Amino acid sequence: MDFDYDLDYNPNAEIKNCKQVSLYNQAVKAVAENFVCYERKDLKNLPGHILFDVYYSLHSIKKMSVLRVELSNLEIMSRLIHEVAMRRELLRMFQAVMDHKNTAASELVRSFILINYNKLDENILTLGLKLGNFLEEAGWFSEAEGVLRSCRNICKENNLVNMLSLECHCRALHIQSIFYLFEAADESYKLCVDLMNKLESSGVQSMNYAALYSNFSVYYYCKSEYDMSFHWSLKALENLSERLPRGVIVDILCQAAKAHVIKRQLPKAELLIQQALYRSRELCKEHIYHTKFINTLLDYAFFLLNSDAVKRSVSVYQFALKLKQVLFGHENLQVAIAEDELAYALYVNEYSSGRFTESKYHAEKAIRTFQNLLPDNHLLLTSAHRVKALILEEIALDSNEQVSVQLYKEAELLHQNALVLSLQHFGENNVQTAKHYGNIGRLYQSMQKYEEAEKMQLKAIAIKEKVLGKDDYEVGLSVGHLASLYNYHMLEYHKAEKLYYRSIDINLKLFSASYSGLEYDYRGLIHVYELLDNMDRMSEYTNKLSEWKILRETNDLNDREMSGIDYAKPSLPLSQVMEKYHSMTSGAKWG
């Protein structure tokens, strides 16, 4: 993929680069330089775009103490967030204020709650939606949740049954879901469903079902209840229409793509995420520093990672991270989440090489930011700890005994803490909990605790089969890990043989014959048959491995020749997208 953009873009330099500074710009700068001479009432009568320019000039000339006070004021921010064309600049300006350990975001929340508590005013609810959406976009999720929950509660306490109330409930559900506040999200989900039913009973015809159902899909996705997430994503696609706001269409396509990825319907996922990327690019036009485009890039990278295009995935993750850093710097949840996702992609990419310096760097950066901005037991921090633990285990394998003991100890603590939190948030019968059991099992295998490793892997397989079905990708992954344990350490070769066959069967159902994971299965069987002295079978799988290598080299060559998606390509009308979607076979394998 060709990302030919200047990543050192500096919007502060735009005026300086002009050969001739306009009289208007000189006037704006003069007001900014003498800002303390003016009273707020003098400035609030200015048109919104001029007021914004004054504040941005304060940012440009580094008058941060003044700017911190101004951006903590709800009345001022209520005007600035309406200047949609200047969103990038507002995000940068707000982050600059927050970088100085400022409480602007929390002060805005307090001010909003004070003016709206138990007061039914639709204008205030509209302001709350805009403020909450901005704070979420800016990466201040806790504060966004405070505003949007307040809006939801006002609607609930005043028995407001209309489209505005439904939007308040939906936005609260969304932020609570992506921030893993599951108790609050459970309540919001029930309230959303109840309100939707009331609106339907009253004859309302104009409900945005697509966005509503997509939010339901997000809710279940974040809870790792993937069947329900997939169900609601299909319902959202059924109700998709060009009449919806362009940004909402992108969100719906992205969420549906992720739900299809998890169900391993990768051809359909590719169609959906490509169209989301085209549309997000059209939405932001020449401005690649648009959060909708950047977030869609992250979803595209997620698709690539899960479709065995790991190198391309890393490239897209790196690009998206750089764009986020331009907007938000480093001390921001939006950046830390991207760092965490990149760290995992790098770990997967370098798994066979053993070079984990870069992945460890990004994992530790994500952890530091999460620790600074989140409670100790937050699930986002757990995710970063899991990635670091996986990396430490691999580093330990190539270290001397003294170093490896310490690394294993640290990795075990990280994995155990992650498991405890997963059990608290998700319960036992959840794929996330199963993944943690599997990770601990792999670690115990490296630590030569083989019986304990076996117990963990069997637990992981049982949960995954119960939750996902016997032929799911995740089941195949755990089956392959258990086969490796039996093969290389417990000397249970016949058990290993059966499990390798099962892993191969699952992989070939989902992917093509060039799927990267098949290498471990084929090598495992070669080892099994060598030790069982079955030369015919050993020769058979040696040939299969050679054929796999040829296919893999061909795929790698094609990947280099095809840099990836041309995301500047025009999007298709939704009618054509859905026609293509329905023409695809759900069970089609990938590759």
UniProtKB/TrEMBL annotation:
Q: Which domain of life is it from?
A: Eukaryota
Q: Please provide the record's keywords in A-Z order.
A: TPR repeat
The family database entries (Gene3D superfamilies) matched by this protein are listed as: Tetratricopeptide repeat domain
Which Gene Ontology CC terms are recorded?
A: Cul2-RING ubiquitin ligase complex
Q: Does the keyword Secreted apply?
A: no
Task: Answer yes or no on keyword Ligase.
Answer: no
InterPro entries listed in its UniProt record: APPBP2, TPR-like_helical_dom_sf, TPR_rpt
Example GO biological process: intracellular protein transport
UniProt xrefs under SMART domains? TPR (SM00028)
Q: Which GO molecular function terms does the record list?
A: ubiquitin-like ligase-substrate adaptor activity
The residues bearing each TPR repeat, given as ranges, are 434-467
This chain belongs to the protein called: Amyloid protein-binding protein 2
